[in-house]
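Case study B.
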Amino acid sequence: MSTHASTAQPSYLVDTGARKGLMAWLTTTDHKRIGLLYLYSMITFFFVGVGIGFVMRLVQLTTFQKLISAQTYNALFTVHGVIMIFLFVVPGLPAIFGNFFLPILIGAKDVSFPRLNLASWYFFVAGAILAVLSLFTGGGAPDTGWTFYAPFSLKTGTNVSLAVFAAFVLGFSSMLTGINFITTIHRLRAPGMKWFRMPLMCWALYSTAWIQLLATPIVAITLVLVILERFFGIGIFDPSKGGDPLLYQHLFWIYSHPAVYIMILPAMGAISEILPTFAKRPIFGYKAIAFSSMSIAAVGSLVWAHHMFTSGMSATANMVFSLLTMIVAVPSAIKVFNWVSTLYKGSIDFQPPLLFTLTFIFLFCIGGLTGVMQGALALNVHIHDTYFIVGHFHYVMFGGTGMALFAALLYWFPKMWGKMYSKKAIYASWFPMFIGFNMLYFGMMILGMMGMPRRYYVHLPQFHTMHVVATVGSWLLILGLVMFFGTLLYAIFKGEKAEDNPWGGVTLEWTIPSPPPLENFEEIPTITHGPYHFEQQEAK
Amino acid sequence: MSEHAEHSAEHAEHPGYGTFIKIWLILVVLTGCLVGVSHLGQTAAVWGLLTLTPLKAGLVFYYFMHLKYEGPLFKVVVLVTLGTLLIFFALLFSDVAFR
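Model:
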């Protein structure tokens, strides 16, 4: 593989066009800048979501005397879900690191459709603005929960129509990004970059893009039907007009369960990039990980109704979906085995990205195994709609996708900004984050097992102790998050200059300068071997 | 083969008006069949819809939307999409048909 450590091109952070400053960023078609636009918007929304979560935990500090009204509480858990899912976790890794690194990882200058890429970001921002507007206009913030279940979402006087329309617009952003990535991977791979020479992040992004493309239109149409039902009473989901509310749940989860894989697959891809670099050896079972990404995308699209075991669905469907749910655990477990095997007998270089990667594996395993528990019908009936589900979901989405996003940010930070952060400060932020996380979400799972229902404004005295533990955990978690992002923000402005390849990585992004030049490569590289070729580095 | 030559070869395979009119007439006849079947009761109407409508859609895809003249990749992509849809239907029926 040829390397191009020196280049005459300016960094992508330098304005080279006619427009300067903010306008240069808002009209950019450079994939790296668009990745950063997503990053800045998403982290902003993430902290709004964190703030709402903080208030919800404060509400549970007392048994009956409350800070806010029950209606406001309903609005808060709805908005927390909408923001965190549609504005942070779903676009998350593909929009940030997919945009920034996919072309570089396959040896391309940009994505296939750069203008469409910018349009996707504008769809994202438009959807976000509509979501925020829905809080303050019409009948007030939606109170249905992020799932917008019919028939309540059809009847409530709150501003569900606008919130649903916001999710519809956000769906376009997701679909267009999916189309862009699929085309980019098919058409723009560098000479010699065969399918099985692609880094595993590309496989993960490819699988994700197919889900985005095939599943998102279903929820988009479903959400339009909700709007039509609210305005014109067409009677698709409203039982009083002959409609079927379970049909809404089916259509919603046909998208929203695969959406969980949209959220987690790119995270798994990032983890598969980080581990070989810090174990200094090729990934164990490359093809198994690549195929498991594709099979997670395929089988994960067929398990949606495990969210509906207590909804009144037929017993036959319950059994079919329970079985399929068990099957989807297999490719996920294959990945975990391969990651652990990659570390085995590796020459481990313990650095902050690896710490967060190991945290991901640990927390994701708890989230994954509690998911398999819920796939079992008999148990699901008891814990459905309890805090156990909330705890499990946060282990997968925050402990999984969130920690992987942090690991990826730490891993690629020196490449993205050309600066290095304080490793000590990152280690210091990990402790409150990890301890707080487990107090909060394991506490929630215990509460669920004890019988505490989710989305309840008040709780009975027997649940109080665990609620206090979880709330204190939320404070520690937020402290860790503030320390983490504060460290990175400081490093962007005041950090020491980073080397081009501070971790000793061997994939293409580490062969170019930090921060990358405008068109990534001085000349398109020719690929002669697989992505994790550490033999070459050892020879040096 | 140059891009231009490829393009010309592709166009040379395209059907004339005669084929389009024949397909249109078949579609009209199938629509007539569907209307007729709908008068034979609900079961017949449902089966008519489930069989004749995909056939009509297939003809539109194949001839009017030029799928017949595309390469194997496009055909596979369409088949995968339709296959996915069929699997979704089957899984939905595991609920609706056994409630």
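The helical segments of chain B are 3-12, 17-38, 42-64, 72-96. The remaining cases will be described in the next quarterly update.
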